[in-house]
Amino acid sequence: MQKPSRHKIVIIGCGNVAWHLAKQLAGLKKYDLFIYNHQPNVLLNEFKTKLKCSITPNLNKIVTDADLYFICVADKFISTVAKKIKDPKAIVIHTSGSAKINELGNRANAAVFYPLQTFSKNDEVNWKETPVIVEAMNTATKSKILDLAKRFSNTVTSLNYKERLELHLAAVLVNNFTNALYVSADELIGKSHKILLPLIKQTVLKLEKLDARAAQTGPAKRGDKKVMEKHLKLLSKNKDLKKIYLQLSNLIVKQQTKKHA
Description:
Layout: E1 7-12, H1 16-28, E2 31-36, H2 42-51, E3 54-56, E4 68-71, H3 75-82, E5 92-94, E6 110-115, E7 132-136, H4 139-152, E8 156-158, H5 161-189, H6 197-206, H7 212-215, H8 219-222, H9 225-234, H10 239-260
Parallel strand pairs: 1-2, 1-4, 2-3, 4-5, 5-6, 7-8
Antiparallel strand pairs: 6-7
């Protein structure tokens, strides 16, 4: 009995998104994976040694017969990298939450596959619980990308660019900005934020039952100016964090006022 043919997938880039994308695809055991980067490096080599992918440190040697081409690079490089893919009919996909689909050029089969997740190289990703946002230039391509996305995630959504950009901004607020505050908390107490982990976890768990406005607590919500003054005194030598404290406190007050308006 003849074995079913395996699909050929190209991934361009060797950063965190490329790694987790390749790792998941390799685990499905349905694809031959080809990883390309603009230059040799240790990260690229790991795709070969750990995931058994074919690697090439030269963007001028990208194969022309792949079923899908994933571009996993910073937004500012997407357009340049896309031009390296010579077949105008190829299905070319970027993984950015903030780049327009036309960054891929004037391609009939351009698409977006945006996983709404934070990626770190050595941190496992639960793909089934990771929403994947899809966009495509035509119905046939969208159908293929949706089918692939469903192999990754239980939550697959089709959004236009404006909707995707708004979602990306929201993701930055809840992920990147909060992580920056975790760094500030570490520096403030002079130790790891692990002592705060139960609080952090409970804050997130509450959002499964309550909307964010209803889940809010703390001195700003209560209007407890004495406590806030004590905090501001502690921040007297940290002008940046003091400014953020005041701005976020004012935001909380406005949000709670809006709730009762």
